[in-house]
Amino acid sequence: MRSILVLTSTYPRWQGDTEPAFVHFLCRQLTSRYRVIVLAPHYPGSLKKETVEGVLIYRFRYFFPFAEYLAYDGGIIENLKGNILKWLLVPFFLISQSFHMVLLTRKYKVHLIHAHWVIPQGLLAVICRQCRLVSKHISILCTSHGGDLFSLQGGLLERLKRYTFRHCDHATVVSTAMRDRLVSMGCSTGNITVQPMGVDLTTQFVPDDNAVKSRDIVYVGRLVEKKGVSTLIGSINLLKNKYPELTVTLIGDGPEKPDLEQQCRRLGVKEQVRFLGSIPNNRIPAFYQSAKIAVVPSIIAADGDQEGLGLVAVEAMGCGCATLVSDLPALRDVVIDGETGLAFKAGNEADLAEKISTLMCNPELSARLGRAGRQSVIDKFDWRTVGARYLGIMDQCLRTKDG
Length: 403
Hints:
- This protein is α/β, with parallel strands linked by helices.
- The chain has 14 helices and 14 strands.
- It is globular and about 65 Å long.
């Protein structure tokens, strides 16, 4: 059995973790054909080595335990924005990840490296192969999820991204909007495939016909600028007189939470907006199943960062929940306005309020969109389908290298 080394900067740290688990879910799909080894950053309290559902996981140390907070809890980019001192950890992080990557490729005779995120994982894999620190016969597949492509701007960073895409054997991006972004950067798309991550639409994110619609609106995601939660709160302010009992449940945490709480107090909607914080991933379906509307109010942040795809919309639609999304290009890959959900102008509180009112007044429309939304995502986003497609991409990478 051939070996794949997966490089990532985020991965579940322990059972029941609130960190996104899509990298692990993909790895689990790959174990049917490959031996899968994951290299992820260590975090205080996590194991340095373990095997979970057939996936061998190594977590590399990059500093003293009390300071290993560069990754996770929103990701490297958000952590660097929030604390300038964390930049001091970056060189140690890069050196340690590179060192352990080289060791593991040799120990397990790795045939393919799958690097999640262009910077730093994809870049490090390419540099190490170019410098012959890892074998030139190892294939490199690089997957960009959005934040690394959209937010890391500037002359040098753009050149590093182009360099990575040019020297990896194949790359995947999770939306057509990201492929268009690469074209605008001058990248050739000949070795780039649009292939989103997946969602468990068979056993986890499924409708519950017995669930009571006890929640009006649910939002799931980080409380950061690009998620546009302030737009959602502003729309509730516009609706509070017409729907005084309307409630919003916010699931997630992040640096914008204090500002958002202050916005609620200032607008007089504190009692209508509930901050639940982060919750385990396996509890999220129940919130969608009991909600009348799921809202994904994403915007383009001041630094250019934006959604790569928006899997939370897929999760909501998988549960049969009527879904409202902003009209950002990436979200158009998920929702067809008026057919499988409704779209509103990104950052426009009045337009969002109008669409919420439309669904609140028309339960038949909500039910129809919920049914159509689930049907539309099953064939494209279920993990069994996504896993099979990634296996095909990896097989092709290896065949090309063998040839």
